[in-house]
Amino acid sequence: MKATILHAPGDIRVEEVPDPQVQKPTDALVRVTAACVCGSDLWPYRGINEVRRPRRIGHEFVGIVEEVGAEVRSLRPGDFVIAPFLYSDNTCPHCQVGMQSACANGGGWGHKDADGLMVDAGQGEYVRVPLADGTLVATREVPDDDLVPSLLTLSDVMGTGWHAAVSAGVREGDTVVVVGDGAVGLCGVLAASRMGAERIIAMSRHQQRQLIARDFGATDLVATRGEEGEAEVLELTAGVGADAVLECVGTGEAMATAIAVARPGATVGYVGVPHGVELPIGDMFGRNVAVAGGVAPVRQYLPQLRDDVLAEVVIPGVVFDHEVPLERAAEAYAAMDERRAVKSLIRP
Amino acid sequence: MKATILHAPGDIRVEEVPDPQVQKPTDALVRVTAACVCGSDLWPYRGINEVRRPRRIGHEFVGIVEEVGAEVRSLRPGDFVIAPFLYSDNTCPHCQVGMQSACANGGGWGHKDADGLMVDAGQGEYVRVPLADGTLVATREVPDDDLVPSLLTLSDVMGTGWHAAVSAGVREGDTVVVVGDGAVGLCGVLAASRMGAERIIAMSRHQQRQLIARDFGATDLVATRGEEGEAEVLELTAGVGADAVLECVGTGEAMATAIAVARPGATVGYVGVPHGVELPIGDMFGRNVAVAGGVAPVRQYLPQLRDDVLAEVVIPGVVFDHEVPLERAAEAYAAMDERRAVKSLIRP
Predict the structure, then answer these.
(1) What are the residues whose beta carbons fall under 8 Å from the beta carbon of B231, sequence distance 6 or more?
(2) Chain A partners of B95 at a C-beta cutoff of 8 Å?
(3) Which residues of B touch A243 (CB under 8 A)?
(4) How close B268 gets to chain A, by Cα (Å)?
(5) Which residue spans of chain A are classified as CATH 3.90.180.10?
(6) Assembly ipTM
(7) What's this model's pTM, rounded to 2 decimal places?
(8) Does the distance separating the beta carbons of B274 and A278 come in below 8 Å?
(9) Contact A126, A109 (CB under 8 A)
(10) pLDDT tens digit sequence for A165-219
(11) Residue of chain B whose Cα is closest to the Cα of A290
């Protein structure tokens, strides 16, 4: 089959790799019908994370079950399924409290599993899915094509934006600030809106992303950054600050802004992989600003968000503004790298 | 009147100071009937926090209202009142959400107020209380003497331990770890117990404090520290970690232990003033361990805890194991400094 391989920074190729097969009784073989590129895929693509050797890449996909192992109970060939960006058994003590991203037996796409068997990455024609019952979430019927982009966001960005809002403790009537206007930040706006936030201040300076933020429920836009942006948010909130803050970038500057605009007693829900973040414990202590979040357990939120998407209560698929066939996956990366696209969809 | 003055590290004296009076229509004059020494008073006493000039000290007291200003509505002379360790108006936007420790018009005992008028510290015969309606919490009747120590803990240590448990999100049935066996940590054990925690692991290596921890509801004691202590807690929790962790010390080592023993998705509620704490954002992100807490808004919890104490549902006054008259306040400091006492009560 064909799949993407990252050879070196900036060098994405689509190549022939071994056809995956069911290897364990808990596996499923999924034919990928849509995949995409994540902001976190850009870290190695840009060389910010080291690329030591060519490797499979991609961790967001939906598709059709082709075959299941003998012990798989909840899935049948022909099912449409959504894969979270990590696989998990959904039964260990961490999964049981909704922390599937810390599953004792879980792992990531594109790496070897605990037994040394290759687990395919998401940007390819097929994927061997370990722990299929725990990992995959199916729809009752194969959904209409126009719902597929929104269902695909539940693999990662929408579930991650949702986790930021859950971690920040967004409640009905809240004033919420969202730092970051990437796909995750935009989904954070949508999540806060769905949770009933009354006012959502999106910090965004790209016009195209501002439009999506508005569509997703942002009531205010702040285009400035750093101390200037913080001052603007404080002015918008009559000097009080936000009831909840979503930090969806992962840089030190973004976290500093998130903490600065939080009102005393508020929580910053953060989901951007931290790069150079130092937490100002003295300020956090003095103002009772909490910091909560991490690798999103999107599996926890998948059934609920699937139902919301199927009922068209939320339409997060709007974040996809670029689409290519698998053979041209390199274009998907380039478009996101050059900020010509918010998020690129790949069709195998 | 007489009051304590910290002249230099280790040098506490009881001296004559001006008699306070009602100076603003929102003031109350309180005759202090019981005060105490806080763990945080030991920072300057030990010279860890600088002492630039002699200063009034003490921020925990209960007493009888002697006189009120013309605008005070909720208090009358003769009322028994509990003072939180900070004064607050209880009406500003921060107070309205229960963050009285961030009151826009509040402040601390023993310093000048916004108008430059001296606000007495708590270890003295009388205190001028600013914003009396917002600050003081009265009991319906003057309570029995044996309830006074427990009511006095609501000024700070019990409210602060309670805040650690609230911040950590302790829920019924939880397994909770409490790091720190000072008065606040012990009150944290009591708070977790009152909130229905099923298992409470107190990290304590002092026999006298272990006894109080047991009395307050600790089900397990861990006497080791650092990596050894962390390993012991993990073993006690079958490798999973705690559902909620209370960090009641404020040192880097205590915070590191608190984070290490938290299960994925758990929150560390911290109330120890941070000294040399660096938060490990990478580990926190990877395991979704949140950090929440800060300067406790004890005023928020005072009415509820007052009722619990009066009903003898909780008896936090057990933390007082040393008592002196005001004239011998220096002994109260020395006993706590030398760890001969958990907490010293001072009777003016």
Answers:
(1) none
(2) none
(3) 97
(4) 10
(5) 2-156+297-347
(6) 0.96
(7) 0.96
(8) no
(9) no
(10) 999 999 999 999 999 999 999 999 999 999 999 999 999 999 999 999 999 999 9
(11) B292
